[in-house]
Amino acid sequence: RRLLETAKMRHQREDERTLLFIDEIHHFNKSQQDILLPYVEDGSVVLIGATTHNPFFFVNSPLTSRSQVFELEPLSEDDILTLLRRALDDAAGLGPSGRVHADEEALCHLARVCDGDARRALNALEVAALTTPPSGDDGSIRIDVSVAADSIQKKALVYDRDEDGHYDTISAFIKSVRGSDPHAAVYWLAKMLVGGEDPRFIVRRLIILASEDIGNADPRGLLMAVSALQAVDFIGMPEARITLSQVTTYLACAPKSNAAYLAIDKAMDDVRHGRTLPVPKPLRGTGYGGAKRLGHTGYKYAHDHEGHFVDQEYIPTDAVYYEPVSVGYEDVMAQRMARWSLQRKPANDKTATAPQSQPSPPISKGTNA
Q1: CA–CA distance, 70 with 53 (Å, rounded to integer)
Q2: Alpha-carbon distance 81 to 121, whole Å?
């Protein structure tokens, strides 16, 4: 508060603004962040806040709405290599005495394993230089790849289980499965497992995907995903990683359709915003004595008719909700729906034309749909 008031007086008296840098601004609670707002608004301070967390979650929306938000990405391996070479040559680093030399392979290893964190790479290089005994007549220090590996030890995986790393990685995982890339999907799966992600969370998302993105194009996908949940609960980690990999690769390679997903959303939207349709009388319940007197008659039992199908009104509308695609087993369903549509009266015809593709073999016979 003292700093902010001083900045305000300086702004009023000298028409000079104060640059205020707050590191790890997410540690400020809501009330503390609210204190900054009027001084930012009147121009007393130019606020620069740094945080390792997502500012849209950890910084008040009034502050973020008045700010430019920049996301700092990890440095590339080439950038890290440049910094490491500079540290070996620059007087501010380990040079320019020429006593410390590093093999190119060692530098590449540090640049790769540090995950874009320059500070971690430079710290590892310094540890290597300080812990490696001199060799040769000139007393120089030689850092090879084994020394570099010992200096950086196990890589610190950038994965948090409740913030951006968590949500970004599961997003990449699901989008890779949906995009039919089993290689990418397994990589993101591995990152989550190594980072300590709850395997049940992963399976839960796979079960959703099996219905949302595969659906009836391969009905076995949902069975596989649900079975994976049982397997994960039964055997646990680390063996459950094998089951997760099997299901992930199966779903990634399965034919895709979101027709069932689109159908229920369209139907629910009609229910919410349209006129509520009455149940046709032949379909209403008849389990009580007065049903006939109410006109609940005329139901046609499908199994009494050829092909176990009978033309009958099941909903008083011509709306089309489920539109199967000609992919996988859903192609078989599309062909059936087309045949049934031709058997219905024109007034009830909900499908204009029959699909032209040939029906796929029934999935129950173990064929590749």
Answers
A1: 12
A2: 9
pLDDT of residue 361: 43
Residue 167: how many other CB atoms lie within 10 Å: 13
Give the pLDDT score at 363: 44
Tell me the pLDDT tens digit for each residue of 64-100: 888 888 988 889 999 999 999 999 888 777 876 668 8
Residue with tokens 């809501």: 30
Let me know: does 224 contact 210? Beta carbons within 8 Å.
yes
Q: Is the dihedral of CA 158, 160, 164, 165 positive or negative?
A: positive
Question: What is the reported pTM?
Answer: 0.61
Give the residue ranges of DSSP H helices in the chain. Answer: 2-14, 30-41, 55-58, 61-65, 77-89, 104-113, 118-131, 145-152, 164-178, 182-194, 199-209, 220-235, 240-253, 259-273, 328-343
**Phi/psi at 89 (nearest 5 deg)?**
-105, -25
- Phi then psi for residue 318, to 5 deg, are -100, 15
Cα–Cα nearest to 4, from 40, 51, 52: 40
Distance of CA 332 to the CA centre of its chain: 31
Give me 303's structure tokens. 């199994």
Separation in Å, CA 128 to CA 104, 124, 147, 270: 14, 6, 6, 67
Distances (CA, A) of 208 to 39, 140, 162, 194, 332: 47, 59, 20, 23, 23
Q: pLDDT, tens digit, for every residue of 164-195?
A: 678 889 999 999 999 999 999 999 999 999 88
